[in-house]
Design goal:
heterodimer; A: alpha/beta; Purple Acid Phosphatase, chain A, domain 2; 9-stranded mixed sheet; 6-stranded mixed sheet; globular; B: alpha/beta; Rossmann fold; 8-stranded parallel sheet; 31 strands; 47% helix
Chain lengths: 248, 890
């Protein structure tokens, strides 16, 4: 689905393609999730890395993009580097390289130690936010700064947005979604998590004050559009205000 | 061979097998032998496996223990009693364990001091030891545990969970060497669930550890079929059930039970008057007897009854509630007061059903249907403590379906017809646990372990391939080598055909996570401003959607949204609840009872139908009195006058309105509309019990949805199910014919698998099974893992597992549990075969408003102790429509 002349939401995927900078963008892969959960006693079979690589492979093939931008939280653990994570991160970086694309990381709240990977993996890492070709990428746990005011569009992750709708029989269906709107006159796009296990926050059911990202607490959330993905397609479900009415 | 005994032994014969001191003690303390004792003393002394079913208060415990005590004193007197465990007693209830301990300590002391008196100093010379007994449960202190390890008691009283832990503590397990007896009490509470499956495996492992084929003694309330229970108890040896004798003394206590309707007309009684009459009736009974025990079907019902009795009649501390949500202390206090006789009345949901000693109860009141004959007998059996007493009780019904159900149930109970139970077969999650447990004790050959497992009745038909798949799962072969260190619990060597323990933490993981009872979560409920209001069950939350109104702590709330294990609500005064609060609590109606109800409906509707033919509808409706044939028919049933009138009215209205009464051989399919909304209902009066209906309703729902290409809502009840939609649809005979022809040719299991794949039930059951199979650990490295965390996206964990293999053992077990334990898929398939073979017919009617038999189905299907006002008014309005129509001259 075409969002602007330059930005495309790839069908059925939590991935966008920005033509002018020849890049695809994803958010919140949380690599190493299963390993970290396993250490807490939840022995989830591994599925995340394979799922994400599959998506990226498909997206690169579809768009021919030369860059993969990860908009924060590439790994899961907050405070330490975990062996499982290290392995998965390695495999992920390797995968992107194999596909002939450059990897750009925006640091997220889970990425405190990602710096250590800079040297061995030769990564391009941005600390807070990155301005690339007029687009501003930031993870979202803090307010955007600097270049954001003049940006063509701000792109963030962090919130793991989703919407819940009920069918006529009262059955709940939760779909991951993009949120698209404006903040202080600048376009704002929130990416759904690409992580296999994170189904997300019900944006149309949770009060605005309960959201995680400060910018979303301040933005005109009701006016933002939810573009949901699921069942292999990407569909505009209208504004959050409309969706809230639909579930009330 | 499994054999049921009919002829008790002579008392002299029974007593002659006892040690002389024990015999003397028995004769001094008891006037005579109770029915189970007349069999048990001799048979247990001969080391026969024996299953004894008998009501509470029939000397069941003594029948199991006395011969064993006698043997232990024999040894003691000879100076041959060793410091080891001779007998292990296992019951599902800690409270019961404490009772048993108290009740056995007294005779052990008395017999011993009697011997001391007679033998004097010879006792010391002869190295005569006391027979010792100790309790081991989760409550046992560290100090006691140490003592038990060093000085093992001769009789160990424990629970299935504590036994599983003891089996795996190397040092303690040595104390089981040469074990001679195992007593399993309250067998009926174990044989039909995973706790019991777990225990069956523990017993076989105990055989290995003790090196002896000990005598097994099962004690329980009545259950059917007894042969199944005996096989569960005794297990199998080389593919055949071990020998076991059955003593069925269940019917030694006479029942005197009646069904009562609080009023004559359950529909047109003034608002609140049914409730008032119910409480007045209860009060009368309480006043007239020394002590009364009231059973409701839900915990919330229990609370409401206590509250109302106190408010209406000024009772104080002499009435108390007893249910599982109360603290252990307050429950013990209630039990104690009952024993002392200082409580006038106790109200319970299920907790007092079991054999906890509560002394003599004069009267039992059952409010609403207990949903199974076996349960009814057990509950009423609590009245009149001695085995010679008559168990007196009343069932007070709440609505007209309840009336029919209770009447059939009590009639069946009086005629000794029971509903049947099933031992879950091949539960893979419980087995996974035991495989880990077995590996802790060392290296096992695969075939050797497989043979041990197949001796347990719940696994006597286990497929080798399933077993090997589990070994692979536990060895972590589904993850890469590098992660196996975390995932693997055992090593499994295919070439060597052997497995064993793996990892330093495995033993700790096992000890902290074993057991089969799932962690259920209370979901905390908050109102605006993060004010905590109370908690609801997780399953209840899964039923809620935004805007639903429900009651909590006596007030109405509207559900807004949930986050993790928190639900957020707002106050909702003046609205009607849309979800009944007891939804997840209510027990399901059993299949056998449902069939009996169907037969009753067919018999009684014939009687009423004949009267309509003879007298004419108009005349019958004008005349208030019952026709003679009807009266004659109802007089044979254990019901009061009010109940007879209500029953007659119910059937008459149904026949006049819908021209048909559904039965066990005829499914009435009724198409109707809601009177004041756009809802359309397709009501299936299918009387096969809720578990069968659960399966059937989904299948019909899927087919109708596909046929008309719309979303279908499903409501499941005990007496049928309802498919509903707000779409403007046309349903006629043709539609229903198509539905039936499609469903009888469909693969039911395949269809349901697809349907439940995304449901909350699947998610929740998956979490339980994953926890039992050690995929989600509740306790790990000192952390207690909250259910919230266990719950994290179990839907996605599930699909991750499915990606590995759709037959992943954990997933396979989830489906098995849902299809066989939650639903009853085999019986549902049987019903469909019967429909196909035309042994069961169906009939389609279109009605202007719902027929009387459908009323409780479309008003949520369930009834509770106190009728909700809205539901009540709605019922009245429905009934009015029925009466208007049938009074219209044709």
């Amino acid at each position: 689905m075409r969002l602007t002349k330059d930005v495309e939401l790839l069908d059925g995927m939590p991935v966008i393609f920005i033509r002018s900078i020849d890049a695809i963008v994803i958010a919140d892969p949380h690599l190493g999730y299963e390993g970290v959960m396993a250490k807490k006693g939840v022995l989830i079979p591994k599925a995340n890395l394979k799922h994400i690589c599959g998506m990226i492979g498909k997206a690169l093939k579809l768009t021919g993009a030369k860059t993969v931008i990860v908009d924060g939280d590439i790994k899961n653990e907050f405070s330490k580097v975990d062996e499982e994570e290290f392995n998965e991160l390695h495999d992920f970086v390797d995968f992107v390289k194999q596909k002939g694309a450059e990897l750009v990381l925006i640091k997220g709240n889970h990425d405190n130690f990602v710096e250590r990977y800079r040297e061995p993996f030769k990564l391009k890492i941005y600390r807070q936010e990155a301005e690339i070709g007029g687009y501003v990428f930031f993870h979202g746990e803090e307010m955007p700064v600097g270049a954001a005011k003049k940006a063509k569009m701000m792109v963030m992750g962090h919130e793991h947005p989703a919407i819940s709708i009920f069918n006529k029989a009262g059955k709940k269906e939760k779909l991951r979604c993009f949120l698209y709107g404006e903040y202080k006159g600048v376009k704002l796009l929130v990416l759904p998590a690409i992580n296999y296990f994170a189904s997300g926050t019900d944006i149309n059911m949770v009060p605005q004050g309960e959201l995680l990202a400060p910018v979303l607490k301040k933005a005109d959330l009701e006016g933002m559009r939810a573009v949901a993905i699921g069942y292999g397609s990407t569909i505009d479900f209208g504004t959050i205000a409309e969706l809230r009415r639909a579930v009330a | 061979m499994i054999e049921q005994l009919q002829q008790p032994f002579q008392d002299e014969q029974s007593l002659s097998v006892l040690n002389e001191h024990v015999r003397k003690w028995f004769i001094e303390n008891f006037k005579e032998l109770t029915p189970p004792q007349k069999y048990a003393f001799k048979l247990i002394s001969e080391r026969k496996n024996i299953l004894i079913t008998a009501p509470t208060g029939s000397g069941k415990t003594m029948s199991g223990f006395l011969s064993i005590i006698s043997r232990l004193f024999d040894l003691s007197i000879k100076g041959k009693l060793e410091e080891r465990i001779y007998c292990i007693y296992i019951s599902p209830l800690r409270a019961l364990n404490n009772d048993i301990y108290k009740n056995l300590t007294v005779p052990l002391e008395q017999v011993y001091s009697q011997i001391v008196k007679e033998m004097g100093t010879d006792v010391i010379k002869g190295n005569m030891r006391k027979v010792t007994i100790a309790v081991r449960t989760g409550d046992t202190s560290q100090k006691e545990r140490r003592e038990q390890l060093l000085k093992p008691p001769n009789i160990l009283v424990t629970t299935p969970e504590s036994l599983a832990i003891l089996l795996n503590s190397e040092k303690f397990a040595l104390n089981f060497k040469g074990l001679e007896y195992a007593i399993i009490d309250e067998l009926h509470e174990l044989a039909n669930n995973k706790r019991g499956v777990h225990l069956a495996l523990s017993l076989e492992r105990l055989v290995e550890i003790s090196g002896s084929n000990f005598t097994r003694i099962g004690l329980g309330a009545t259950l059917y079929p007894l042969e199944e229970a005996a096989m569960y108890l005794a297990g199998c040896e080389s593919g055949k059930p071990r020998d076991c004798l059955i003593v069925d003394a269940s019917w030694s206590k006479k029942l005197d039970v009646k069904v009562m309707s609080p009023v004559k007309d359950l529909i047109y009684a003034k608002e609140g008057s049914v409730e008032e009459a119910t409480y007045n009736k209860i009060n009368e009974i309480i006043k007239a007897s020394k002590s009364t025990l009231i059973f409701t079907n839900t915990r919330s019902g229990t609370e409401r009854v206590v509250y109302n009795l106190k408010k209406r009649f000024g009772y104080g501390e002499d009435i108390a509630a007893h249910h599982g949500s109360l603290s252990r202390e307050s429950r013990l206090e209630v039990e104690d007061l009952l024993k002392k006789g200082s409580l006038k009345c106790a109200v319970s949901s299920t907790s007092l059903e079991l054999g906890i000693d509560i002394g003599a109860i004069e009267n039992v009141i059952q409010l609403g249907s207990p949903k199974s004959v076996t349960r009814a007998i057990q509950r009423f059996g609590r009245a009149g403590h001695s085995f010679k007493a008559v168990a007196k009780g009343e069932t007070i019904i709440l609505n007209r379906d309840d009336l029919v159900e209770c009447t059939v149930m009590i009639d069946a109970a009086l005629k000794h017809h029971l509903d049947s139970f099933l031992v879950p077969q091949n539960a893979l999650d419980v087995l996974a646990q035991h495989i880990v447990g077995m590996s802790l004790s060392g290296r096992w050959g695969v075939d050797e372990a497989f043979a041990v497992i197949r001796r347990a009745y719940p696994y006597h038909e286990l497929e080798k391939s399933d077993f090997v798949y589990l070994l692979n799962y536990l060895a972590g072969t589904y993850v890469g080598l590098e992660s196996r260190r975390v995932y693997a619990k055992i090593w499994y060597d295919e070439k060597e055909n052997a497995f064993g323990k793996r990892g330093r933490f495995t033993k700790v993981i096992y000890m902290l996570n074993q057991g089969t009872i799932p962690d259920e979560v209370a979901v905390n409920v908050f109102a605006a401003g993060n004010k905590w209001i109370g908690s609801i069950e997780e399953e209840f939350l899964t039923r809620l959607k935004a805007g639903d109104v429900f009651t909590l702590g006596g007030r109405l709330y509207r559900f807004e949204y949930s986050r993790g294990m928190k639900a957020f609500v707002s106050e909702a005064k003046d609205s009607a609840p849309t979800i009944p609060p007891w939804f997840s609590e209510q027990l399901p109606l059993s299949y056998e009872l449902a069939i009996e109800i169907g037969k009753f409906r067919s018999r009684f509707s014939e009687v009423v139908g004949n009267c309509i033919k003879k007298t004419g509808a108009g005349a019958l409706l004008r005349k208030r009195a019952m026709p003679d044939n009807v009266k004659g028919f109802l007089d044979q049933l254990p019901v009061d006058e009010n109940a007879k009138h209500a029953m007659y009215g119910y059937f008459l209205e149904q026949l006049l309105f819908a021209k048909a009464v559904p039965s066990d051989k005829m499914i009435l399919v009724e198409y109707t509309r809601d009177t004041d909304s756009d809802k359309r209902y397709l009501i299936f009066h299918s009387l096969f019990g809720r578990r069968v209906n659960d399966a059937l309703s989904r299948a019909f729902g899927i087919l109708l949805g596909e046929m008309l290409d719309i979303d279908i809502g499903i409501m499941v009840g005990d007496n049928g199910f309802v498919l509903s939609t707000e779409e403007n649809i046309d349903v006629d005979t043709g539609t229903v014919d198509d539905l039936f022809s499609d469903i009888t040719t469909a693969n039911l299991q395949k269809m349901l698998k697809k349907n439940i794949r995304k449901t909350e039930m699947m998610r929740r059951r998956f979490r339980h099974v994953a926890a039992r199979s050690f995929m989600i650990l509740k306790n790990y490295k000192g952390y207690k893992i909250t259910v919230g965390r266990q719950q994290v996206n179990s839907q996605l964990i599930l699909s991750a597992a499915e990606k590995i293999d759709p037959n992943f053992p954990i997933i396979k077990e989830v489906y098995r549990e849902i299809f066989n334990d939650v639903m009853d898929l085999p019986k549902a398939e049987g019903i469909l075969r019967d429909i196909k073979a035309k042994n069961i017919s169906y009939m389609f009617v279109e009605t202007p408003s719902a027929s009387p038999f459908a009323h409780s189905l479309i008003t949520f299907g369930h009834a509770d102790v106190v009728l909700m006002k809205e539901r009540y008014r709605y019922l009245q309005s429905l009934h009015k429509l029925v009466m208007e129509r049938i009074k219209k001259p044709d």
